[in-house]
Amino acid sequence: MGWMVPETEISSEMINNQTLVTQFILQGFSVHPEYQVLLFGCFLSLYTVTLTGNALIILAITLHRGLHTPMYFFLFNLATMDIICTSSIMPKTLQGLLSKQSTISYGGCLAQLYFLTWAASSELLLLTVMAYDRYAAICHPLHYNTMMSKAFCSLLATGVWTLCAFNTAIHTGLMLRLDFCGPNVINHFFCEVPPL
Questions:
Q1: Which residues contact 138 (CB under 8 A, 6 or more apart)?
Q2: N or C: which end of the chain has fewer CB within 10 A?
Q3: What is the pTM for the complete model shown?
């Protein structure tokens, strides 16, 4: 089969004809530039309220011994995940609202994607664990303390964090295998799987 091109020639030719993307342009709010200052104020205030509220929840649970129960332990984890989730996108979004063109590096985009997906999926799985905790408290009140021991609660929380980190690593790893060589404009204000 003399007419076929060897595989090494194809791959080097493809590399020479492509320009790989090194940064993305986040185009989320650029359609209405007149609202950027208003949106910056709204997002900054919401981000501040979110950080303050979750930090106060964490502080109250840590300092008050009466709140060292399974329900508040899971609430502590939920507040921590919420801080990670919002902090993975809001600083870059706020920076983008102050500049004329919002860009994010390829590595920054994948890091944002990883931490956002990890924290959001952890929140959802943790809500399931919290539902189980309430089920045990309501349906098995006499056995609740044995069912939801500190060791078991720690195991559940560690399982949630680890399982979601592993799941997100698979998704992000699959995104790393893609070649981004086309348009580098993302019609969103943060990096997420569907727009990418």
A1: none
A2: N
A3: 0.78
What integer is the mean pLDDT of 72-96? 91
Residue 23's pLDDT is: 66
106-139 helix and 150-176 helix, angle to the nearest 10 degrees: 150
Using alpha carbons, select from 173, 163, 162, 165 the residue that is nearest to residue 110: 173
Phi, psi of 99 (to 5 degrees): -100, 165
Do the domain assignments include residue 191?
A: no
The confidence score (pLDDT) of residue 13 equals 39
CATH assignment of the domain containing 96: 1.20.1070.10
- In the chain, how many domains are there? 1
Residue 135, domain member (yes or no):
yes
Distance CA(50)–CA(28), nearest Å, equals: 21
The answer as to whether 115 is a domain residue is yes
| 12-61 tens-digit pLDDT | 334 444 556 666 666 666 666 777 788 889 989 999 999 999 999 999 99
Is 100 inside any structural domain?
yes
CA dihedral 148→150→155→161, nearest 10 degrees, is 100
Parent domain of 82: 27-186
